[in-house]
Amino acid sequence: MKGIDMNVRDVLSFSPLLPVMVVHDVDNTIKAAQAMFEGGIRAFEITLRTPIALQAIRELRNNLPREAIIGAGTITQAKDLQAAMQAGAQFGVSPGLTAKLTQAIQAEAWPFLPGVASASELMQAMDNGFDTFKLFPAAAIGGVDLLKAWAGPFAHARFCPTGGIHAGNAADYLALKNVLAVGGSWLMPAEKVAQQDWQGIRTLAQAACALKPQTFESK
Ligand code: 3PG
Fold it and tell me: N or C: which end of the chain has fewer CB within 10 A?
């Protein structure tokens, strides 16, 4: 199964808010994703960190409106990539990049957002044909200041920072010309899932999506 008829830049432009989802229960995951969808979110990253992650990807593909784009995160090896694609994930995200993973990505026509954390990693990934990156862990390695500094030498690179993004700083990132989207777990807090507070999750999504106008016109 291939991904979608979009590259990863299109995916991020379509949904500038990307929930990073650590999933423990399939029904709760569907309900949380439905609440986020109702709040305006259109792309979802299901991290391959829990045993039910692949099943959750399959179920989200079946249960969310077709407009929703379901991705797989925490892809660290070629076998994760294959498993995610087989489960129906429409794009992939990794926290970093290795030579083996690069080869596996290049062998597939599948939208992919590789993680970078340094100028040298970015340059190596650009040498391999990537132009859009997860900056991870964004806040810990310089956040907004780092992205501003990279806008000079790497003017054509675009980013989705994750790691330490929250409702209080997401707008600062989204205002940057080289940031297409921001991602994070704050959009689906574990305690709200445990309490099945779907209205609370919907409200968080609505607030986050309200940050995006005026920032995406010319990126
Ligand atoms: C990721 O994989 O992007 C991070 O785990 C998300 O980081 P956060 O929990 O700080 O949002």
Answer: N
Q: For residues 182 and 18, is the Cβ–Cβ distance under 8 A?
A: yes
The answer, yes or no, to whether any atom of ligand 1 lies below 6 A from the CB of 163, is yes
* CA–CA dist 48, 22 (Å, integer): 8
Question: Does the C-beta of 76 come closer than 6 Å to ligand 1?
Answer: no
Give the pTM.
Answer: 0.94
DSSP 3-state of 15: coil
- Among protein residues, the one with the nearest Cα to ligand 1's atom 8 is 163
Q: How many CB atoms lie within 10 A of CB 132?
A: 24
Q: Which atom of ligand 1 is nearest to the CA of 162?
A: 3
Closest CA to 158 of 150, 167, 170, 168: 150
Task: Give the distance (Å) from ligand 1 centre to CA of residue 172.
Answer: 17
Q: What is the pLDDT of residues 109-152, one digit of tens each?
A: 899 999 999 999 999 999 999 999 999 999 999 999 999 999 99
- Strand, coil or helix: 82: helix
Q: Which letter does DSSP use for residue 113 in this model?
A: E
Cβ partners under 8 Å of residue 51, min gap 6: none
Cis peptide leading into residue 19 (ω within 30°): no
21-37 pLDDT tens trace: 999 999 999 999 999 99
The atom of ligand 1 lying closest to the CA of 185 is 11
